[in-house]
Specification:
This protein has 238 residues and is α+β, with helices and mostly antiparallel strands. It has 10 helices and 8 strands. The strands form 2 sheets. Strands 1, 2, 3, 4, 5 and 6 form a 6-stranded mixed beta sheet that branches. Strands 7-8 form a two-stranded antiparallel ribbon. Helix 1 packs parallel to helix 5, helix 2 packs antiparallel against helix 4 and helix 9 crosses helix 10. It is elongated, with a radius of gyration of 21 Å.
């Protein structure tokens, strides 16, 4: 089984500097917002601890502050808190030894092309693989959904997070084989778009169908147990 792995470096104000794998600015800003939301969980976090750990769904997030930088590790909760904390500690120490702790100097190196991205990736992988086999460097979308759901349930989605996400109902196909069994072409097209990433409005627009028609089809499919409607957090635009 491959272990998902995301490593992010922020400055002390929460502005993203680097990440493995590279992530777009929207996702990085969301991580930053998560970190500051997590710091509001006084009952969960030990303020005196060097490492802060937060479990969401199948993921574990560990982060630590060091002078002018914040280091974040997102991975599978199967890795465990102790191992994840040791990985992050080694990643932070390796980063500081190699690149220092001045965010402006690091950004300057990036802008001037003096920063070797491949070397940075190799350093990160070398540290991670000392502890865990089958590391999979991947942008974990499931993590964002788990984290947003957790913060939502705790009433901690503030205005900063609301800029990035929207809570919607989305249809999800329960059995992909059902598409090949369906004889109606329009229903098949609707079913093929029920992947959990599209709202009913988006499906209707994609197919050029009236929303009422799509809703009728989904209601029938839901009644048959082919489709389920779930509430999810989707990524909005900044």
């Amino acid at each position: 089984m491959q272990i998902p792995f995301n490593y992010i470096v922020l400055d002390e104000g929460g502005t993203p500097i680097l990440s493995v794998p590279p992530m777009d600015s929207e996702k990085l800003n969301m991580v930053s917002a998560f970190i500051f939301a997590i710091e509001g969980l006084s009952k969960v976090l030990d303020k005196e601890s060097k490492f802060h750990v937060f479990y969401t769904g199948h993921h574990i997030t560990v982060y630590m502050r060091h002078h002018n930088l914040i280091f974040v590790l997102i991975t599978s909760r199967d890795v465990g808190e102790n191992v994840a904390s040791r990985i992050l500690k080694d990643l932070a120490e390796t980063f500081l030894e190699k690149y220092g702790d001045d965010p402006d100097a690091i950004r300057g190196a990036l802008v001037m092309g003096r920063f070797d991205d491949e070397e940075f990736m190799e350093l990160v992988m070398d540290v991670a693989e000392r502890y865990v086999n089958n590391i999979k460097i991947t942008e974990e979308i499931g993590f964002f959904e788990d984290m947003l759901r957790e913060l939502h349930e705790r009433g901690l989605i503030d205005e900063r997070l609301r800029k990035f996400v929207v809570l919607v109902n989305v249809p999800i196909l329960k059995d992909p084989k059902a598409i090949s069994k369906e004889k109606n072409e329009i229903k098949k097209k609707v079913m093929s778009l029920c992947d959990g990433s599209r709202t009913i409005d988006e499906i209707a627009k994609k197919l050029g169908l009236p929303k009422i028609k799509v809703m009728s089809i989904l209601t029938e499919l839901q009644r048959k147990g082919v489709v389920e409607i779930k509430t999810k957090f989707l990524f909005g635009k900044i």
